[in-house]
Amino acid sequence: MTQSTSIPDGRSLISKEGTFELGFFSPGSSSTNRYVGLWYKKIPVQRVVWVANRDNPIKDNSSKLIISQDGNLVLVNQNESLIWWSTNITTTKASTSSLVVQLLDNGNLVLRDEKNNNNSTGESSFLWQSFDYPCDTLLAGMKIGIDKRTGLNRYLTAWKNWDDPSSGDFIDILELTSNPEAIFWKGSTKYYRTGPLIGAESRGVINQTLSVRQRILWDRKHVDVYMDLNQNHLTYGIPWIGVKDVYGVEIGVAEEE
């Protein structure tokens, strides 16, 4: 997607290998609100893994995604007079005409400068990426935790309910104590903890059957403390219902047809 194009409601952006799709959707069976989200393209049931305007729904289907003149990816109404959502970055570029938006096959939506980065898809070339702003799902390659260089704190927040992707009560956050650990919260109540980081890495099994492990890592330069997953094409999501479901955290492999 370039500055001369847009993605209106009813159209979508698909990653190169067809793994993920970005588009407009209405959640559940009863909601008519419209959201911009990401989901797996090759599985039969729509599994939304990221929502741009989760706390600011659109009431009709007249909106579109564009790259604005100030270099942001924005969700606007038809005549571009109302902004529903924005990447909200500041760029010092004199011209933003070389900016592009790409959906990568790991599910990362990125804004980058095509002219200056030689078509690089490395993280250092991104002006903005959705992986830095997770919703309720941790994808393989995504990190939860603190980037000490920027102060950015990445954490998961559950949907309010199946028909409403707005921020719910449950939060999965990496807490930086003397020994960092991931903790599930409901409001001010702790429901689950992974165990502290001791040394450079801490591992916790979250599904014995799949042998899936989450890891808490402290990189060698002590600039990143984060949690990730160790298998490809894996999703790790926080459900919104009940205490028992928090302990049985949703996790599954996205299988291709």
Automatic annotation (TrEMBL):
Coiled-coil residues: none
Q: Which domain of life is it from?
A: Eukaryota
Do the record's keywords include tRNA-binding?
A: no
Cited Pfam families = B_lectin (PF01453)
Keyword annotations for this protein, in alphabetical order, are: Disulfide bond, Glycoprotein, Kinase, Lectin, Receptor, Signal, Transferase
Gene3D superfamilies with a match to the protein in the record: Bulb-type lectin domain (2.90.10.10)
Q: Name one GO molecular function term.
A: kinase activity
Q: Where is the Bulb-type lectin domain?
A: 1-124
Q: Which InterPro entries match?
A: Bulb-type_lectin_dom, Bulb-type_lectin_dom_sf
Kindly provide the name given to this protein in its UniProt entry. G-type lectin S-receptor-like serine/threonine-protein kinase
Say which species the protein is native to: Trifolium pratense
Q: What is the lineage of its organism?
A: Eukaryota, Viridiplantae, Streptophyta, Embryophyta, Tracheophyta
